[in-house]
User: Which sequence fits this backbone?
Protein backbone atom coordinates (compact mmCIF):
# COMPACT_ATOMS: atom_id res chain seq x y z
CA UNK A 1 0.00 0.00 0.00
CA UNK A 2 1.08 3.52 -0.72
CA UNK A 3 2.03 5.77 2.17
CA UNK A 4 2.73 9.49 2.41
CA UNK A 5 4.96 10.97 5.09
CA UNK A 6 5.31 14.58 6.14
CA UNK A 7 8.06 14.77 8.72
CA UNK A 8 7.44 18.36 9.81
CA UNK A 9 4.31 18.64 11.98
CA UNK A 10 4.74 22.40 12.34
CA UNK A 11 6.78 25.12 10.68
CA UNK A 12 6.94 28.87 10.78
CA UNK A 13 8.34 31.48 8.43
CA UNK A 14 8.64 35.23 8.43
CA UNK A 15 6.51 37.15 6.00
CA UNK A 16 8.26 37.61 2.61
CA UNK A 17 10.70 34.78 3.32
CA UNK A 18 10.87 31.37 1.60
CA UNK A 19 9.91 28.07 3.22
CA UNK A 20 10.09 24.46 2.06
CA UNK A 21 7.72 21.73 3.23
CA UNK A 22 8.86 18.13 2.92
CA UNK A 23 6.95 15.10 1.69
CA UNK A 24 8.08 11.57 0.95
CA UNK A 25 6.01 8.69 -0.33
CA UNK A 26 6.30 5.00 -0.85
CA UNK A 27 4.98 3.23 -3.94
CA UNK A 28 5.88 0.54 -6.43
CA UNK A 29 3.89 2.26 -9.16
CA UNK A 30 5.58 4.08 -12.01
CA UNK A 31 2.72 6.31 -13.11
CA UNK A 32 1.03 8.47 -10.52
CA UNK A 33 0.19 12.00 -9.45
CA UNK A 34 1.33 14.05 -6.48
CA UNK A 35 -0.46 17.00 -4.95
CA UNK A 36 -0.21 19.67 -2.33
CA UNK A 37 -3.46 20.82 -0.76
CA UNK A 38 -3.84 23.81 1.55
CA UNK A 39 -6.36 23.91 4.40
CA UNK A 40 -6.65 27.42 5.90
CA UNK A 41 -8.50 28.08 9.17
CA UNK A 42 -11.77 28.05 7.22
CA UNK A 43 -11.09 24.32 6.70
CA UNK A 44 -11.73 24.49 2.96
CA UNK A 45 -9.33 22.15 1.15
CA UNK A 46 -7.71 23.99 -1.75
CA UNK A 47 -5.50 22.48 -4.43
CA UNK A 48 -2.17 24.28 -4.48
CA UNK A 49 -0.18 22.38 -7.06
CA UNK A 50 -0.14 19.07 -8.94
CA UNK A 51 2.71 17.04 -10.42
CA UNK A 52 2.48 14.17 -12.88
CA UNK A 53 5.15 11.56 -12.25
CA UNK A 54 5.99 11.07 -15.91
CA UNK A 55 6.89 14.76 -16.26
CA UNK A 56 10.44 15.59 -15.29
CA UNK A 57 9.81 19.31 -15.14
CA UNK A 58 8.84 20.55 -11.70
CA UNK A 59 5.40 22.14 -11.47
CA UNK A 60 5.08 25.82 -10.63
CA UNK A 61 2.07 27.94 -9.71
CA UNK A 62 2.99 31.57 -9.05
CA UNK A 63 4.80 31.63 -5.67
CA UNK A 64 4.45 27.86 -5.22
CA UNK A 65 6.83 25.36 -6.75
CA UNK A 66 7.79 21.76 -6.14
CA UNK A 67 11.00 19.79 -6.13
CA UNK A 68 10.04 16.37 -7.44
CA UNK A 69 12.69 13.70 -7.05
CA UNK A 70 11.16 10.51 -8.44
CA UNK A 71 14.03 8.18 -7.60
CA UNK A 72 14.13 9.43 -4.03
CA UNK A 73 10.32 9.48 -3.82
CA UNK A 74 10.42 13.00 -2.55
CA UNK A 75 8.00 15.84 -3.31
CA UNK A 76 8.73 19.08 -1.46
CA UNK A 77 6.77 22.32 -1.71
CA UNK A 78 8.55 25.68 -1.81
CA UNK A 79 6.61 28.82 -0.98
CA UNK A 80 8.37 32.01 -2.01
CA UNK A 81 7.60 35.49 -0.70
CA UNK A 82 5.42 34.03 2.06
CA UNK A 83 2.24 35.92 2.84
CA UNK A 84 0.05 35.95 5.94
CA UNK A 85 -2.66 34.25 3.90
CA UNK A 86 -0.39 31.25 3.42
CA UNK A 87 -0.95 30.30 7.05
CA UNK A 88 -2.63 26.90 6.86
CA UNK A 89 -2.29 23.17 7.13
CA UNK A 90 -0.60 21.72 4.07
CA UNK A 91 -1.30 18.17 2.99
CA UNK A 92 0.77 16.19 0.55
CA UNK A 93 -1.24 13.61 -1.40
CA UNK A 94 -0.55 10.72 -3.77
CA UNK A 95 -2.76 9.07 -6.35
CA UNK A 96 -2.02 6.23 -8.75
CA UNK A 97 -4.30 5.39 -11.63
CA UNK A 98 -7.51 3.74 -10.57
CA UNK A 99 -6.74 4.09 -6.89
CA UNK A 100 -7.93 6.35 -4.11
CA UNK A 101 -6.04 9.37 -2.90
CA UNK A 102 -3.62 8.89 -0.02
CA UNK A 103 -2.99 11.91 2.18
CA UNK A 104 -0.10 12.68 4.47
CA UNK A 105 -0.63 13.78 8.09
CA UNK A 106 -0.12 17.45 7.26
CA UNK A 107 2.26 20.28 8.16
CA UNK A 108 0.93 23.30 10.02
CA UNK A 109 2.56 26.42 8.57
CA UNK A 110 2.44 29.76 10.37
CA UNK A 111 3.52 32.90 8.55
CA UNK A 112 4.70 35.49 11.05
CA UNK A 113 4.37 39.25 10.47
CA UNK B 1 -21.83 27.83 -9.95
CA UNK B 2 -20.37 24.34 -10.10
CA UNK B 3 -19.19 22.76 -6.93
CA UNK B 4 -19.71 20.49 -3.98
CA UNK B 5 -22.26 21.51 -1.37
CA UNK B 6 -22.29 20.08 2.12
CA UNK B 7 -25.01 20.69 4.67
CA UNK B 8 -25.45 21.47 7.40
CA UNK B 9 -22.27 23.34 8.23
CA UNK B 10 -22.75 22.68 11.96
CA UNK B 11 -24.70 19.82 13.51
CA UNK B 12 -25.22 18.72 17.06
CA UNK B 13 -26.14 15.15 17.93
CA UNK B 14 -27.45 13.73 21.14
CA UNK B 15 -26.19 10.41 22.41
CA UNK B 16 -27.98 7.54 20.68
CA UNK B 17 -29.17 9.55 17.70
CA UNK B 18 -28.48 8.96 14.04
CA UNK B 19 -27.68 12.03 11.96
CA UNK B 20 -27.25 12.48 8.23
CA UNK B 21 -24.81 14.80 6.49
CA UNK B 22 -25.71 15.87 2.98
CA UNK B 23 -23.30 16.11 0.05
CA UNK B 24 -24.38 17.23 -3.40
CA UNK B 25 -22.19 17.90 -6.45
CA UNK B 26 -23.08 19.39 -9.83
CA UNK B 27 -19.71 18.71 -11.45
CA UNK B 28 -20.88 15.46 -13.07
CA UNK B 29 -18.11 13.67 -11.17
CA UNK B 30 -18.20 9.89 -11.10
CA UNK B 31 -16.69 9.20 -7.70
CA UNK B 32 -17.60 10.64 -4.34
CA UNK B 33 -15.87 10.32 -0.99
CA UNK B 34 -16.38 10.98 2.72
CA UNK B 35 -13.43 11.82 4.95
CA UNK B 36 -13.24 12.40 8.66
CA UNK B 37 -10.79 14.88 10.14
CA UNK B 38 -10.09 15.14 13.87
CA UNK B 39 -8.54 18.33 15.30
CA UNK B 40 -4.96 18.75 14.15
CA UNK B 41 -5.05 15.49 12.24
CA UNK B 42 -5.10 14.34 8.65
CA UNK B 43 -7.92 12.92 6.56
CA UNK B 44 -9.25 9.43 7.04
CA UNK B 45 -11.44 7.79 4.42
CA UNK B 46 -14.84 6.61 5.65
CA UNK B 47 -16.66 5.48 2.47
CA UNK B 48 -16.41 6.04 -1.25
CA UNK B 49 -18.54 5.41 -4.29
CA UNK B 50 -17.43 5.15 -7.90
CA UNK B 51 -20.83 4.49 -9.46
CA UNK B 52 -24.49 4.89 -8.62
CA UNK B 53 -25.89 2.19 -6.32
CA UNK B 54 -22.45 0.99 -5.34
CA UNK B 55 -20.05 2.01 -2.57
CA UNK B 56 -17.08 0.64 -0.66
CA UNK B 57 -15.82 0.92 2.88
CA UNK B 58 -12.79 3.04 3.58
CA UNK B 59 -10.43 2.80 6.52
CA UNK B 60 -12.88 3.79 9.27
CA UNK B 61 -16.36 2.74 8.08
CA UNK B 62 -17.61 1.31 11.37
CA UNK B 63 -20.54 3.29 12.74
CA UNK B 64 -21.23 5.03 9.42
CA UNK B 65 -23.49 4.28 6.46
CA UNK B 66 -23.93 5.82 3.01
CA UNK B 67 -26.11 5.59 -0.08
CA UNK B 68 -25.61 6.58 -3.70
CA UNK B 69 -29.02 6.62 -5.33
CA UNK B 70 -28.14 9.51 -7.62
CA UNK B 71 -24.87 10.46 -9.24
CA UNK B 72 -25.04 13.90 -7.67
CA UNK B 73 -25.71 12.86 -4.10
CA UNK B 74 -23.77 10.90 -1.47
CA UNK B 75 -25.25 11.35 2.02
CA UNK B 76 -23.43 10.07 5.08
CA UNK B 77 -25.30 8.79 8.13
CA UNK B 78 -23.49 8.78 11.44
CA UNK B 79 -25.17 6.08 13.47
CA UNK B 80 -25.38 5.62 17.22
CA UNK B 81 -22.84 2.83 16.81
CA UNK B 82 -20.15 5.43 16.12
CA UNK B 83 -18.80 5.96 19.62
CA UNK B 84 -16.80 9.11 19.03
CA UNK B 85 -18.42 11.00 16.15
CA UNK B 86 -17.33 14.53 17.09
CA UNK B 87 -15.19 15.62 14.13
CA UNK B 88 -15.04 17.61 10.92
CA UNK B 89 -16.43 15.76 7.90
CA UNK B 90 -15.34 16.46 4.34
CA UNK B 91 -17.07 15.31 1.18
CA UNK B 92 -15.09 15.13 -2.05
CA UNK B 93 -15.54 14.08 -5.65
CA UNK B 94 -13.65 13.55 -8.89
CA UNK B 95 -13.82 12.18 -12.40
CA UNK B 96 -12.54 8.64 -12.91
CA UNK B 97 -11.78 8.75 -16.62
CA UNK B 98 -8.63 10.13 -18.18
CA UNK B 99 -8.04 13.55 -16.74
CA UNK B 100 -9.73 12.70 -13.45
CA UNK B 101 -6.57 13.26 -11.53
CA UNK B 102 -7.72 15.87 -9.05
CA UNK B 103 -10.07 15.53 -6.12
CA UNK B 104 -12.26 18.45 -5.12
CA UNK B 105 -13.71 19.11 -1.69
CA UNK B 106 -16.81 20.62 -0.17
CA UNK B 107 -16.59 23.13 2.64
CA UNK B 108 -17.12 20.51 5.32
CA UNK B 109 -19.52 19.85 8.17
CA UNK B 110 -18.81 20.03 11.88
CA UNK B 111 -20.51 17.36 13.98
CA UNK B 112 -20.57 17.66 17.75
CA UNK B 113 -22.05 15.22 20.23
CA UNK B 114 -23.82 16.89 23.13
Assistant:
Amino acid sequence: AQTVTQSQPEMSVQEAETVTLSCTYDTSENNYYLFWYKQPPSRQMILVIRQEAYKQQNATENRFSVNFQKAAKSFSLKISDSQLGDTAMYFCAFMSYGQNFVFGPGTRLSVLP
Amino acid sequence: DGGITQSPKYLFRKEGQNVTLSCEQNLNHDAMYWYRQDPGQGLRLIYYSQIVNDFQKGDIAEGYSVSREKKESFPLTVTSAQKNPTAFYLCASRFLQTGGNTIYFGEGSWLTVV
